[in-house]
Amino acid sequence: MNLPLVIAEMGRMAGQPGILGCALVDAATGLVWHASAGTPGTGRAWEAAVDHWRLHDRQKLHFAGLGTLAAAVMYHANGVLAVFPCSSEPDLLLVAHGRHRGVDWLAWRCMVRTLGRLLNPRGQGLVRSRYSSTAPEIRK
Predict the structure, then answer these.
(1) Domain of residue 64, CATH code
(2) Is residue 100, in this structure, part of any structural domain at all?
(3) Which residues, 6 or more positions from 97, have their beta carbon under 8 angstroms from its beta carbon?
(4) pLDDT digits (tens, 9 = 90+) for 82-91
(5) What CA–CA distance (Å, rounded) separates 21 from 23?
(6) Residues 7-20: pLDDT tens digits?
(7) Within a domain: 129
(8) Alpha helices in the chain (DSSP H)
């Protein structure tokens, strides 16, 4: 993994119209690897948003007819939180905080795939999240 490229890509993503910030979060632990931009208080929101992903994983048999989860989106009064699978090795999710309007979520999903390829250059970019028992290690 090329950490400077990952950080640069996340900065570019955080600068997209309507995006207030984003964070790369460990799917199993909620540990924030890196956050770009964001509003005051979003640090804990990054970690907590992963629980929405975990809830779906626990209940996935009930949603099987809908196919693989591509994103978990929470529409709050003051913005949108969206959680996307980003990498399976290591198992990371990308959490985005955006405005109600003005975000091109389809383009954002393509950017998440690009970020996934930077995280795992062996070609396992965007994959269905599965949980690991240990926190990943960042190497520079």
Answers:
(1) 3.30.450.30
(2) yes
(3) 19, 20, 21, 22, 38, 39, 42, 45, 79, 80, 81
(4) 999 998 878 8
(5) 7
(6) 999 999 999 999 99
(7) no
(8) 3-14, 42-58, 105-119
What strands, in cross-sheet order, belong to the sheet with 19-26?
32-37, 19-26, 91-98, 79-88, 72-76
Name the packing angle between helices 3-14 and 105-119 (round to 10°): 170
**How does pLDDT run across 50-81, given as a tens digit for each residue?**
888 888 888 989 989 998 888 889 999 989 99
92, 115 Cβ separation under 8 angstroms:
no
Long-range residue pairs from 58-66, CB within 8 A, at least 24 positions apart, any chain: none
pLDDT by residue (tens digit) across 100-130? 998 998 888 889 999 998 888 776 544 443 4
